[in-house]
Amino acid sequence: MTDHSGVSFLGMGNADADYSSRPSSARIYDALLGGSHNFSADREAAKRLLAMLPAAGEMARANRAFLHRAVQFMLDAGVRQFLDIGSGIPTVGNVHEIAQSRVPDARVVYVDIDPVAVAHAGEILRDNRHATAVQADMRFPEAILGHPGVRRLLDPDRPIGLLLVAMLHFVPDDDAYPAVERLVASLPPGSYVAISHGVSETAADAATDGVADLYRRTDVSTATGRSRAQIMRFFGDAVLEPPGLVWVHEWPSGGDGAPGDMAVVAGVARKP
Amino acid sequence: MTTARDEGFPPDDGGLTHAMMIAALNEILAECGYDPVPGEAEPAAAGGEVDRLIEDARHRADGIVAAALETAVQYTDAALEQAARTVLSARHTPGCLPAGPLEPATLPAPGAAGRSVGDSWYAATTAAGVYLPMAGEVAARTLGAYADCLARAAAADPPDLDAAYRVGAEAVALGISRTEALPATMTLLLDHLGHGDTVSRPARQVASAFAAGFAAALQARTLAQQESLHRATQRAAREFQSALQHSEARYHRLAYYDPVTGLANKARLVQRLRQSANGDDPARHVGLCLVDLGGLAAVGEQFGADAGDHVLAEVARRLQRVARHPDYLLARCGAHAFVLLVQDSGGLAHLAELAERLTRELAEPASLPGTGLTAALHAAVGVVDVPTSGLDVTRVLVDAEIALRQARAGTSGWAVYDPRPAGPRRAGSATGVSGLVTGPPSYQPVVRLGTGRVAGLHTRMAWRHPHLGVLDLRRIGQLTGDRDTTTRLAGSLLDQACRQAMAWDGGRTGPFVGLDLPVHQIGYPDVVDLVRDALTGSGLPPERLHLHLSGLDAVPAGEHSQTVLTALAALGVRLELDDFGSGGGSLAYLRELPLHGLRTPASRVQSPACGVDTDRELLAGLTRVAHALGLTLTVHGVDDDDAQARLAGTGVDGAQGLRFGPPGTPHQVGALLRVPALVALADRRVAS
After folding, report:
1. ipTM summary value
2. What is the helix (H) or strand (E) element at residue B119, kind and residue range?
3. Residues B507-559: pLDDT tens digits?
4. Which of A226, A262, B287, B575 could form a disulfide with A230 if both were Cys (CB 3.0 to 4.6 A apart)?
5. Residue-wise pLDDT tens digits, B171-186
6. What domain range is A99 assigned to?
7. How far is B79 from chain A (nearest CA, A)?
8. CATH number of residue A264's parent domain
9. Do A119 and B654 touch (CB under 8 A)?
10. How do strand A264-270 and strand A239-240 relate by DSSP bridges?
């Protein structure tokens, strides 16, 4: 609590806020994916992001496609429950559509800090008994794990697919590492963790300051890339599935190892 | 069947006989390929044998029924699935249009060598920044099918513009939802529909119809998404409001009532006193009987907190016998103190009579459950009678306390506060500040729950008064009304705390030091000068100084508090509202004050009647509200495992209490700050 960035991180100071006046990362992401679940403030932010980081749209799509492949992979491995943290606006190709088209009673819990994204997801999932969306801050994993929605849908004794796609780079070290450690610790053996994360050490680094500045004006903290070694730490004791931590568009196969404009890496690990 | 067994077999009167049932059963068993049950041969068999046979048959029958059900369900599922598929394909009237994305297995491999039109189309959309939520191969095949469908529509006579329009709409439904994808798509389709450089009129018409369908669907999709976004926004705002009101209502219940006795609490008492003060009848008086139970502390120590609560409830019942009158308010206003507020006092004689009755009610010892023992209550009553005009709430309560001390010194068990100027008995004692002995300051860790690290230290200093016992800064101000003394002592506490914080860590990120500052007693602008001087003198980065506001300071007093608090906040120090939820008006005022955080005692968010889960839910709700207001929430007084367990999973930011470390000396704290792991360990227990 004395991390003085705490309050600004929450950034929801304007409680009865007009949500449309302030860009949100969930809606910026939707705009990058070509959705219309966004306000002009979000589209403006997306446009500025693209000006600074022309590959941002491509990265958003690559993240989304990775999410798709990771869920398919976990389904193949027998996982029937998913916890998608930082799910954003449940736009095209969301987890429950992917999972439930193959396993109708697959369980999916979406978690996001953005109340609008959660209200939205709640509307979409109203008639879906096996999926729900909860509003929670990933910095407080106990609040997620203890949430009635999570308890109702996820069986803690059967493998769970934990999805942390394109969200950890918004969370500062002090919060991110303990929170992910706690979340992973709560998973039963045989569970999987999928992470995609902005990586430092790339060409896109040059734009980092500008991007950070842009996100500072949204409802979340700054996006900060981490090194591969730092990203690996998130997996903890879970064992990375082949091919390991690779460029997000090259998981689990394909590509030549060249990043292109990509500044995002991804991997899926299995908890022994 | 049991009837048949009990009464033997009735003669064959054309009704159902045992033999007939066996035969019927065997017929069914034979049809299903099961062995028949033994037949009519043993009608005279022992009852036990018949029982066994019947039981056996029943088992088999159950098995058969279960198997039949399962089969039926399977068939039904398959039929339903088939029906769903039929409905789906029927909906897409153009026969060529696939019902959704095409899995590779459902289509023959592409006949033509090289890049199919589907592949090209897919590549073009991807290049235009379209994300299709499916594997590339599936997308390409589906788009290929669309292209074929369009070619067939162009070949038809007349051209099937309706189908082309629908393909356009389907393309949007598939996920091609960016206008950027349209130019490449149109070029590609015109190439596909035309022959070399010539594009026939039907082909152009089909392409136009496709574009119209695409545009219409894209517009519909955009509007639908915008509408649902607005709905979601409104819903989020509504939910936030109702969550706010909900927790406010629950919090107020806890805030105004004592969970142990069900009586009003001090906050409610103060509220009622204030209302009395605003009355318009200057002749009206209020009376107040402060009842203190001297024996209760011993009960708690010897027999535990539950026994103490039992005695409190018993005392509350006895007091209610005296206080049953709409004009009276009975409140619990301390660990072992009650107040009977008489809102329309008939004068001292009236109050004295009440005090007598209260004393009599409490003369009998209270029984201790399960022990057969009783405990003497050692009650004393302090009485005050004041006119409502110009009533000073704090003052009245202090006067009652002074009367209580007199009652303790006397023999009747009660005493009335004497408002006349002090005689020699009271001069320099109850209201004087001479003889104050300053104790050493103590520092109690405040732990950040997320990391388990010590985030800061809560500093307290106590002064020993020759007659009033140990007092903190606020009490000194209340009891003496001596502003200069309060200011002088506050200044020295501030200086000491800031210097100590610098001694531990001179950087910006060192632990904060928090202290309770009686802002109103010191007054504006002195209080701002005091804080500024302490910061300048010590060099402590301002954000490392946290000022806790409680009591009167925590009650918004309009523009004035705004001015004072804004001036303090401008120094860069952090302001935290303590005793969050005690009295006060709407939570909304929190938004208007320049606050950084809220503090609440663990006891306030704990109600033994409701249990841990309910408390935890309440706390989680409060935390969400605090966070939504951009404030942190710290719970203090977390002294035992129970209180600690209530924090788990609530998102509460910080905690303070014996569970996280007792108040210590500067030296002990220094050691603690060097060994963060110890505290982290304590925190892990919260998580478990």
Report:
1. 0.71
2. helix B117-127
3. 888 899 999 888 877 777 888 899 999 999 999 999 999 998 876 566 555 56
4. A226
5. 998 888 888 889 999 9
6. 61-202+226-270
7. 17
8. 3.40.50.150
9. no
10. antiparallel
